[in-house]
């Protein structure tokens, strides 16, 4: 956990997806996050690092934990932050994403954190903006800071990522959290098992070296980490599942289903949870659960990302 | 370029500084040594060991990373961020005498940042500064209370402090 990362900076000034990060870069973010976590334990939980920098949080989709987590991370680094949500903004008057972005760009922010319902929206911004763009979730594509905080939580609990057996269970098809996690964990050498009903499995997973199964027992068998994903009912406009009740019977994580996992297995969930659909309350609130750790770690990981993207004078410095 | 301090001289300097610390503060009960990363940390540990030999008391030690408090991060330039390391101050600094320890004292900007960092942890009774090497060229009104060796340098030169804990041997060299 205290190993020194083998790179000292990120190549890109944007964080658009895990796809673009190398494993040493991922390691750098995680190691930096350990330092940032310590800041949150101090009597004064704030450092002056990004003083005078402006960060705009642009949320086109509902979000509680991600938005608040970014805001807290920005404030702990002393950045000036402003938030925009779709309701009450010009977006509700029909302004396009690019026009909104150009307008905000004219206010010269240093960074823009964006969540958007369309895959690739942050990439579009990155092409036209001078500001650093941070993807806080784009459509069905990626949610890189979630995957980084999940990896941080695993590293904190298990001391390693390589060789870790990780079962990811649930709505894989509609999950950008799954996509980012699958990319990150395979890059870092973890063994990923993906488990979902056949209707909720995206194409092309075998190419990533991921074991796909529709048996919960098989996925959980000997797992060090069991990550449950939310059924994204709002994105399901067809018949993906016969019934919620059947889904819980087959894929819901109960203490009994967990018996097959490693004795010290941890249970994760990116939230918000559907209790009684993908996860039993006894598991969600039980000793295995690190779900609230994930929330706390989110702030530290986002501080690390913002710090590393902010750029500076470089190595060394005056004594 | 010349080695201006070898292992023997370094050991003698640290012993002398430890004696000065004990003498000047008439005891070491409420004293803590906090090293500035990277090379201030092993120097603080060595001083703690020396003080234990002299006064029979093990003083508290900590490590401070000042990267998040640097004044040059705010200059807008495209370049990599300095790597940050963990700050580790596992005790309350309130009402303690804090000895801030660094390897080289130069412009004073690191020390300014260290003050800001320390004060976020509490309100020490006083802060004193220990530097193994003082090379001059201050840009802020800061001076060391304990100095291992004053070395006149030009701004073009660099001073390399090597410590066995990090670099495998003890020496100070002036380069350039």
Q: Structural class from helices and strands of chain B? A: alpha/beta
CATH architecture designation of chain B? 3-Layer(aba) Sandwich
Multimeric organization? heterodimer
Distance between the termini of chain B: 7 Å
How would you describe the overall organization of this protein?
The complex is a heterodimer of chains A (319) and B (176). By secondary structure, chain A is α/β, with parallel strands linked by helices. Helices cover 36% and strands 14% of the residues of chain A. Chain A has helices at residues 23-39, 65-76, 97-105, 121-128, 144-158, 176-187, 216-220, 244-251, 255-258, 281-284, 291-310, and strands at 54-59, 80-85, 111-116, 132-138, 165-169, 191-195, 211-213, 225-228, 266-268. In chain A, the strands form 2 sheets. Chain A has a 5-stranded parallel sheet with strand order 7-6-5-8-9. Chain A is globular and about 55 Å long. Residues 312-319 of chain A have low confidence and may be disordered. Chain B has 176 residues and is of the alpha/beta class. Chain B has a single domain (3-72, 86-175), classed as Rossmann fold. Chain B is globular. Chains A and B meet through helix 1 and helix 11 of A and strand 4 and helix 3 of B.
């Amino acid at each position: 956990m205290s190993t020194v990362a083998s790179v000292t900076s990120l190549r890109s000034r944007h964080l658009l997806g895990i796809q673009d990060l190398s494993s040493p870069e991922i390691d750098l973010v995680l190691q930096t996050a350990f330092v940032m976590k310590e800041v949150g334990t101090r009597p004064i939980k704030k450092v002056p690092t990004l003083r005078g920098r402006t960060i705009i949080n642009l949320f086109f989709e509902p979000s509680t934990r991600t938005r608040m987590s970014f805001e807290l991370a920005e404030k702990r680094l002393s950045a000036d932050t402003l938030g925009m949500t779709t309701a009450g903004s010009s977006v509700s008057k029909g302004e396009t994403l690019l026009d909104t972005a150009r307008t905000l760009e004219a206010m010269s922010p240093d960074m823009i954190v964006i969540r958007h319902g369309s895959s690739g929206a942050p990439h579009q911004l990155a092409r036209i903006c001078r500001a650093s763009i941070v993807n806080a979730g784009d459509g069905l594509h990626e949610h890189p800071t979630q995957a980084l905080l999940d990896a941080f939580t695993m590293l904190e609990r298990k001391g390693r990522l390589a060789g870790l057996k990780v079962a990811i269970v649930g709505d894989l098809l509609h999950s950008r959290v799954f996509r980012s996690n699958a990319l990150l964990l395979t890059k870092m050498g973890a063994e990923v098992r993906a488990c979902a009903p056949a209707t909720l499995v995206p194409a092309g997973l075998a190419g990533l070296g991921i074991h796909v199964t529709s048996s919960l027992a098989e996925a959980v068998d000997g797992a060090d980490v069991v990550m449950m994903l939310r059924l994204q009912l709002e994105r399901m406009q067809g018949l993906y599942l016969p019934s919620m009740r059947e889904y819980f019977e087959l894929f819901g994580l109960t203490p009994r289903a967990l018996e097959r996992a490693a004795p010290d297995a941890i249970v994760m969930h990116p939230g918000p949870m559907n209790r009684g659909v993908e996860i039993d309350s006894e598991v969600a609130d039980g000793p295995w659960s690190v779900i609230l750790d994930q929330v706390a770690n989110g702030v530290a990981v986002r501080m690390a990302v913002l710090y590393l993207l902010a750029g500076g004078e470089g190595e060394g410095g005056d004594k | 370029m010349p080695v201006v301090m070898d292992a023997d001289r370094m050991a003698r300097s640290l012993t002398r500084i430890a004696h000065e610390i004990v003498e000047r503060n008439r005891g070491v009960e409420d004293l803590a040594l906090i090293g500035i990363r990277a090379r201030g940390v092993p120097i603080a540990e060595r001083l703690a060991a020396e003080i234990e030999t002299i006064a029979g008391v093990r003083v508290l030690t900590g490590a401070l990373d000042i990267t998040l408090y640097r004044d040059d991060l705010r200059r807008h330039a495209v370049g990599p961020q300095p790597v940050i390391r963990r700050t580790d101050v596992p005790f309350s600094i309130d009402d303690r005498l804090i000895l801030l320890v660094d390897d080289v004292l130069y412009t004073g900007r690191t020390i300014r940042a260290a003050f800001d960092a320390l004060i976020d942890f509490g309100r020490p009774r006083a802060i004193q500064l220990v530097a193994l090497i003082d090379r001059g060229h201050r840009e802020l009104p800061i001076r060391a209370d304990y100095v291992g060796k004053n070395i006149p340098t030009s701004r073009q030169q660099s001073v390399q402090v090597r410590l066995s804990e990090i670099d495998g041997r003890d020496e100070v060299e002036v380069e350039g």
